[in-house]
Write a structure and sequence with these properties.
Length: about 300
């Protein structure tokens, strides 16, 4: 059992007060590395060939050389910089490294990634390239996988992932998300479950149970789990009222389903923007502790 991390040595230069909590990644890595010495590994950058399995080559080139137009930079939510390119390619590469470990060991995690708002020809919502989509295509290309389920439990719909696979019956995309939250123009996943503002644990877990039965019925050969914790009560961008215990029960349900299937699992990080960032960090750490406890 291995966890992969994406280094922050090339930290993004973000404006003061920016909503993206870059510092949480180092904090999560530090906590888990203290608990799990020798089990955290640094991921390498994704290659251009890997990125172009999913993304338009012209878009990949524009990200890399800084020639994105103003509108596409604005949709990203990040200013362009060389450090953004490094971070984005390493974020995808970390998920690919976790995939390689999962195919060998049965499960692995990436303490970053989950960049589900990136489309073929553009990124948005703090997502430059779509690591979940690239990992799906690499699994098919390199590991002989023919059926993949992407279980996306971030509070924001995985619109980029849904759009990328909407015509591919080999990929089951599940998204449980806030019905009235970003993105305001939703895409069509295989199974979308839109939940109301203020949704609490009982409603959420009942909806999840039903949706996971559909995923199980698809009989995937690999599961990718986007484990965003922005449904936690008090999240600045979430608008749900889930508890830490509710999120732990959520993760346990996903992991139990994967155990029933007996297939490899990759868990990625996703969103978490708590007003009290300590609670978001605690929730993220719990996702990976539970992963290690269940599969380690």
């Amino acid at each position: 059992m291995k966890l992969v991390f994406t280094e922050n040595m090339h930290s993004l230069m973000l404006p003061t007060g920016h909503k993206f909590p870059l510092g949480k990644y180092d904090r999560i890595h530090a906590a888990l590395s203290a608990e799990l010495p020798g089990q955290l590994l640094l991921g390498a950058p994704a290659t251009i060939a890997d990125l172009e399995l999913v993304h338009d080559p012209a878009y990949v080139a524009a990200v890399r050389d800084g020639s994105l137009d103003v509108a596409r930079v604005r949709r990203l939510g990040f200013p362009w910089s060389e450090s953004l390119v490094v971070r984005a390619t390493r974020s995808v590469g970390g998920t690919l490294a976790a995939l390689a470990w999962a195919m060998q060991l049965g499960a692995a995690g990436h303490i970053a990634g989950g960049t589900h708002h990136a489309f073929r020809d553009r990124g948005e919502g703090f997502c430059v390239f779509n690591d979940l989509a690239v990992a799906t295509r690499v699994a098919m290309r390199d590991h002989g996988v023919t059926r993949v389920a992407i279980v996306d439990l971030d509070v924001h719909q995985g619109n980029g992932t849904a759009a990328l696979f909407q015509d591919d019956p080999r990929v089951f995309t599940l998204s449980l998300h806030g019905a009235r939250n970003y993105p305001f123009q939703k895409e069509q996943s295989t199974r979308d479950v839109g939940l109301p503002d203020g949704c609490e644990d009982a409603m959420y877990l009942a909806a999840l149970d039903e949706a996971l039965e559909e995923v199980h019925g698809f009989r995937p050969e690999l599961v990718l789990y986007q484990s965003g914790v922005d449904g936690l009560a008090g999240d600045r961008l979430g608008r749900m009222h889930l508890t830490l215990e509710g999120l732990e029960r959520r993760d346990a349900r996903v992991y139990a389903m994967v155990k029933r299937l007996g297939v490899p699992l990759v868990t990625t990080l996703g969103g978490g923007y708590g007003k009290d960032i300590e609670r978001s960090i605690a929730a993220h750490i719990s996702v990976f502790r539970s992963l290690m406890r269940t599969f380690g």
